[in-house]
Amino acid sequence: MFAQQALKSNPLQKGECIHTFGYPFRRGLSGGGFIYCISETRVVIGLIAHLSSEDPQFDPHKELQRYKQHPFINAIIKDGKPTHYGARTLPCGGYYSIPQLTSDGVMITGDSANLVDSRKLKGLHTAIKSGMFAAEVLFEAFRMNDFSATQLAKYEEKLKNSWIYSDLRQSRNFTPAVAMGVPFPGGPLLGFQMVTGGATPIGDLKTKPDYSTTEDMKRFYGSASPQPMPKADDRIIVSKLTDVYFSGTAHDEKQQSHIYLKDEAVCKKCISDYKAPCTLFCPAAVYELEQDKIQVNFSNCMHCKTCDLKCPFQNIVWNLPEGGGGPRYSLQ
Ligand code: SF4
Ligand code: SF4
Description:
Largest sheet: 5 strands, antiparallel
Helix content: 25-40%
Strand order of the largest sheet: 2-3-4-1-5
Number of strands: 11
Structural class: alpha+beta
Bound molecules: iron/sulfur cluster
Radius of gyration: 21 Å
Distance between the termini: 18 Å
């Protein structure tokens, strides 16, 4: 997720790019962050938090506010004001999560093909290159009037023989190692990977579906409490609803909700044992707890798809909304 700030005085140079590791992560929270200076007066502050968190009160929006409080970042944005906000899930499963990429009449490219290189914190280059390979194969398919799986498999071959696959292979254990916790036990495994080109001394690391990693309140917190949200000043620390406004998201209120809950009885159990994680992990306050029931404010939705992956009971069905709705991201 990211927030864009307009600055009166900018200590960074246009084009400067800083990646961070560590703060504000702790038990149940892992990932990284970035600071991109996109113009003389604007910076984008972003936080990447793994959805494999065990914390039932995992709230990436709150962590983004805590990230902005770090003295290094605060010194950059202290005279600024928020202008944009957004969130999306990054398919950073990498090498071992690449699906079958071709079939009759089908080629899958870019993020849909899980080509993000989490070690380098980027996926645009692989998305563009995979699109170029797909275009070359499609050009040939048009010439031969052959869109069969056999013809389109040439796209997959091109990918496998390119730097995309060799880069992703070197990153194959990066995300699972970071998700294990840095500096321990993930740090030494990351160091080992740098020397060996991606291997770890304990073999390839296993991953689990994100929804299955959430622990219940008792197990995760015991008698402790979640860290509170820093007090909003709507300048540096911004409330979730104000940030939804900054995302520019809009849907026709008269359309049928594109989100529904499969079984309200399941929610009741979840509210009692997990304290309704959806009310926190959703970066757009779509889910609200009202008198022991979950209310769905679908028109806030920013289409990030976190809820599709992180509801511990897989109780949320997210469909495509009517065309034209959603967040309005711009660089203005
Ligand atoms: S939608 Fe999912 S996360 Fe939210 S209360 Fe229901 S079961 Fe829990
Ligand atoms: S409802 Fe789901 S897809 Fe929409 S913003 Fe919330 S978590 Fe993201």
